[in-house]
Amino acid sequence: MNTVVATGPRVLLRRLREVMAGSGSGQERLNQVVQVIAANMVAEVCSVYLIRDGGLELFATEGLKPEAVHRTTLKLGEGLVGLIAERRRPMALSDARSHPNFAYRPETGEEIYRSLMGVPILSGGRAVGVLVVQNRTQRHYSEDEIEAMQTVAMVLAEMVDGLVGGGAGKRRAGLAGLPARLAGTTLNDGMARGHAVLHQPRVVVERHVADDIDAERARLEDGVRSLREQVDDMLRAAIAEPGGESREILEAYRMFAHDRGWVSRMQAAIDSGLTADAAVERVQVETRARMAEVSDAYLRERLSDLDDLANRLLRTLAGHVGSAAFENLPPDAIVVARNIGPAELLDYEQSRLKALVLEEGSPTSHVVIVARALQIPVLGRIDRLLEYVDDGDVILVDGRHGQVFLRPTDDVQTAFAQHLAAREAEIAGYAAIRDLPAMTADGVRVTLNMNAGLLVDLANLDGTGAEGIGLYRTELQFMVRATMPNIATQTRFYARVLDQAGSRPVVFLTLDVGGDKVLPYLTWGDEQNPAMGWRAIRLSLDRPVLLRMQLRALLRAAAGRHLNVMFPMVADVSEFTAARELLERERQRLARLGETLPARIRIGTMLEVPGLAWQLTALLPLLDFISIGSNDLLQFLFAFDRGHPRLAGRYDVLSPAALKFLRHVVERCDAAGVPVSLCGEAAGRPIEAMALIGLGLRSISMTAAAVGPVKMMVRSLNLEALEAFMARLYDLPDHSCRAQLEGFASDHGVVI
Q1: Predicted confidence (pLDDT) per residue in 57-101, tens digit
Q2: Helix, strand, coil share (%) of the chain residues, nearest 5
Q3: SS3 320
Q4: Are 150 and 191 in a shared domain?
Q5: Contacts 24+ apart (CB under 8 A), 620-624
Q6: Are residues 617 and 673 in the same domain?
Q7: Is there a single domain that holds both residue 214 and residue 276?
Q8: How far, in Å, CA of 121 to CA of 84, rounded?
Q9: 187 and 84 part of one domain
Q10: What does each C-alpha distance from 700 to 72, 226, 238, 497 come to in angstroms?
Q11: Which of 11, 542, 557, 664 has the highest CB neighbour count under 10 A?
């Protein structure tokens, strides 16, 4: 059987270019396209299905019954064509009728065709249709044929955009133009008002078919060389301290720019007959399709880096270098994007950038880490965001409540301006008490610490007046790197953390990965319940070399200083003793080598698993401190998935059961003389923090933004009155004591 390779994809692409550039309506040209493809592929049938109104519609065919055009429809996921569109992956079957997804449409007359090959038609990473060929005989389609079809589909994507009477502009027609409020997730807190700037780095490729393959290869080589120089320049001018994570992110980004596999795929696309620009776009489309199938956050971040690089390379090939694509930026720009790479964010003029709003995004994504270094509010995970926003729209970003207002009415803008002014007044008020102690009105001192996980977070120590770092999450440094950091790298990093903290204490939480935090250089199997699976201390004890490397680095970094180490998710006393023994072995090893040891070592544990609370008699004599992790503790206490949208807010840390449990732990620790604190979301909200102090906690740790509001609450609180009030709450049958506590605050003038 002849294949497309026999006549050559270049011939096919040139013929398609002639057809697409010819006269006639779009429908007439599409009819000619399927005829050309069928002839070149030596196929009896070639059909194009396009997505319209959420379903697939047969738009053109050579070989099926003509009357089926615009009559045959499929849902996404229905039949083989629907499956290809839904998965955005090609499919080649020598016996299509035996596939469980095969769906027969009698009006097409396709029952006589046995073999099928189909590829998605992708535009911007989204499926806009499916290109299909069929043969009567049992035919085994080669990899070269599948690749050629994907190339053809990419070229077709530019042609079919206007045929369905839709496209992105059509989708927005019913959504844009009117005021809207969209809910999302706060990835970096803050408020901002400005004008929407749609992040559209994609250069429209107008010429797909190469006239001179050698010239296109040379263009690609020049473009890649220029791209690498741009990335190298970014590294040399990387964000200044303390945002050291940005340098590491850009180093990983640079590694992808030098990836030979990425470049070779683009070179192969040029060899098939594409221009350099079209080759970059072809590989980018494949990358975006892979991104849609990857659930692992780390792998998605890697693919996002490649997508970002492709955007930059396309601009370079088009003659737009660096930030030239982002000129004419308004002075109050709020960048709106499906996703965006960290280097692309750095292309925007920072003085004009007020906020970032994403359709996707996660708290540990590289662009969010860079945005935190730039102190830019970020909202993410906003469903269908790009369907609502037009370039230049007035947009209000409310990070406190995780919402965005588009094209707000005058009254909404007025109310937002008042909230913004109030927010600024609050910030000024917090600044005024920054250097004052967190002491209640009746003279009880409370220690307010800060949670951190990045070097950039430490810059907030001075600004907030926090007394130290009550929880430093070390796993983020493992997650932003492409490879496992060695002992020397870890040592330097932990030393920088201690240097920036100065005389203030830092509590390091050892590696807490697993669950939703997966490292690519560790092997995980599938888990039905990852949050309760192989993670945190369980993983570290099963991989003791990993923990020992980290402990050795911490000991060396704290030479001559105080070191506070805490182990995560301990469920059994034996787990704590095993981890403590590893720390002691590393301490003895360094002592034998004559290295300088920390002046003082304190060892503690997180209390996140309720079962550990009933082992306190055995546990407390073995450690120096305990920190209650309220986030995990609450979900394990009530057996609920805190990430489940239907359970969000269903269980409350201010319920009698949770308050009584926490009070029991605090009383046991106090009786044993073991310091106890709490770190977690509960500590960062004034009403919850008030209750925590009322049940006996005298040390809590929270996000940087929460320190000011909580200190304001503490200084307005009469603790003796609160303790007497709370004594009546622990045995109530109520779902939550929130209303009672809010009433107490109102009656006693507590600022919450």
Answers
A1: 999 999 999 999 999 999 988 999 999 998 888 999 999 989 988
A2: 50, 15, 35
A3: coil
A4: no
A5: 620/668, 620/669, 620/672, 620/674, 621/672, 622/573, 622/576, 622/577, 622/580, 623/576, 623/580, 623/674, 624/674, 624/675
A6: yes
A7: yes
A8: 10
A9: no
A10: 63, 50, 35, 20
A11: 557
Given phi > 0 = left and psi -120 to 50 = alpha, else beta, which region is 465? left
Helix (H, G, I), strand (E, B) or coil at 330: coil
Domain count, the chain: 3
User: In angstroms, rounded to a whole number, what is the distance separating the alpha carbons of residues 365 and 185?
Assistant: 13
Tell whether 424 is covered by a domain.
Answer: no
Q: Tell me if 473 is assigned to some domain.
A: yes
| One domain for residues 128 and 249 | no
Residue 461 sits in the same domain as residue 554: yes
**Residue finishing a domain among 165, 188, 214:** 165
421-460 burial, b at 16+ Cβ within 10 Å, e below that, comes to eeeeeeeeebeeeeeeebebbeebebbbbbbbbbbbbbbb
DSSP secondary structure of 422-469: HHHHHHHHHHHTTTS--B-TTS-B-EEEEEESSGGGGGHHHHHT--SE
Give a yes or no: residue 62 inside a domain.
yes
Neighbouring residues of 435: CB distance < 8 A, sequence distance ≥ 6: 465
- The model's pLDDT over 673-709, given as tens digits with 9 standing for 90+, comes to 999 999 988 898 899 999 999 999 999 999 888 899 9
Show which residues are catalytic. 366, 679
Q: How far apart are CA 736 and CA 650, in angstroms?
A: 10
Domain containing 507 equals: 433-747
Check whether residue 374 and residue 468 sit in a common domain. no
Q: Is residue 425 part of a domain?
A: no
* Prediction pTM value: 0.64
Alpha helices in 66-212 (DSSP H): 79-87, 143-160, 167-173
Residue 522 and residue 512 in contact, taking contact as beta carbons nearer than 8 Å: no
- β-bridge pairing 353-358 and 73-75: unpaired
